[in-house]
Amino acid sequence: MRSLFWRVLAAFWLALVLVAGLSLLLGRALNNDAWIIARHPGMQDLAARWTERYEAQGALAAQPLLDENRDQYRVFVQVLDETGRHLSSREPPHPHHRPPPPPPEFGNRPPLPRFPWRQLSQEYTSPSSGQTYLFIYRIPHEELRAWRNDSLLWPLSAMVIALVVLTLFSLLLTVSITRPLNRLRRAVHDLGQTSYQQSSLARLATRRDELGVLARDFNRMGARLQSLIGSQRQLLRDVSHELRSPLARLRIALALAERAGAEERARLWPRLTLECDRLEALIGEILALARLDADPGAARPIDLGELVAHLRNDCALSAPGREIRSELTPGLALSGWPDMLERALDNLLRNALRFSPADRPVEIRTERRGERLLLSVRDHGPGVAEEHLARLGEPFYRAPGQNAAGHGLGLAIARRAAERHNGRLLLANHPDGGFLATLDLPLTTSR
User: Fold this and answer.
1) 416: buried, middle or exposed (CB in 10 Å: 19+, 13-18, 0-12)?
2) What segment(s) does the record annotate as region Disordered (predicted)?
3) pLDDT at 266 > cutoff 50
């Protein structure tokens, strides 16, 4: 993965290297002979002015130009023609800068001193006569450095180069970071307006740096939130639909009771009571499903043996005479929320008792597979058609032919409880007949 940290670090050091490299190139360019001759006031246009006066008035008339240039700018100039003949004074620029004579001792001869001046040369061709002249300039190093410092050209040029390069790299780096962040900001805004589309971050999610990881995580979060929002909307629609039926029956029964006589009214009271009980049971299941999304608090150890024994006792009261067999593997440690898991198992048992024949038992078994626990409830009923298995567990969904049994919330509660335990609910037809509902849970469960 290409880390954004290394990209920023590389851009920083690359900018420094480019600034240093361009500064060196600028230094070489500013130290070029042609550039100095074209910019220094002691050499600028001197060749043209000297050649014009020399060809018009002779060498004696042109020599004062060279002398004035030497006195004013400390630049000593010699001029040669095409044959190598000197056309100007050949005296040295400064007598005190003459190199000392070599000592007589050959073996102890010291190294020759460095010339105290910078020598530059320029060829100039007269536009009128076509004659070519060679101008040799000698300027002291101190004078050259003073001219550069006084002109502020070198520091300003270096500063301009540094600012241009650093600004360019900063702009590129800023754009490479702010553009993805702006996309994320727009995606957050769309998510808040429930108009989020995963395609809005598809290109950003292909990046292989931290911003790409963030975009992929945001896509997963957005998809999850959209799914939750959609499921909540569907749940509200289903709740309103399910509540409408018992309320309508209650309204009809009340209307009939108002017009009925005493005997007919006494016959209608059990029907009203039944509809009230159904409505209360439906509201209770809806509240139970909603509580699963609330904060259940800290997880704690779950004693499966005690939990299953408690459920068997409840079923013995609600369904006397029905046989419930349990085969529990001892020593399985499970942590989570006992009330939530008990409600899930209670719904699975009630479904199994509802569809299993009265003379066949309902079986509860546990099985360990690696670090996971399989807690299954099996009945010996007719099972469910394969095409409807995928939708079982959706709120208010009931397979065809079973519409009269319950409200379609029992399996939804069991599935939501399994998910809160970082597990899942597996629903299938048993190979030997009947229906098998399995809670696949991790042995060590954390919220």
Assistant:
1) buried
2) 86-112
3) yes
Say how far apart CA 189 and CA 192 lie, in whole Å.
5
Higher-confidence residue of 293 and 119: namely: 119
Q: Which CATH architecture is the domain 219-291 placed in?
A: Orthogonal Bundle (1.10)
pLDDT of 385-439, one tens digit each?
A: 888 888 887 777 777 655 445 667 778 888 888 888 889 999 999 888 889 999 9
Q: For the domain with range 298-442, which CATH number is right: 3.30.565.10, 3.30.70.270, 1.10.3720.10, 3.40.50.150?
A: 3.30.565.10
**pTM attached to this predicted model:** 0.47
Residue-wise pLDDT for 323-346, tens only, equals: 888 888 887 778 888 888 888 888
* Contact by Cβ (8 Å): 42, 75: yes
Domain locations along the chain: 219-291, 298-442
H helices of 100-209, in order, are 141-151, 153-192, 202-205
Task: Confirm if 414 and 347 have CB atoms less than 8 A apart.
Answer: yes
- 413 and 396 in contact (C-beta within 8 Å)? no
Tokens of 305: 């043996």
Instruction: Pull the structure tokens for residue 21.
Output: 């490299």
Q: How far is CA 233 from the centre of its chain?
A: 30
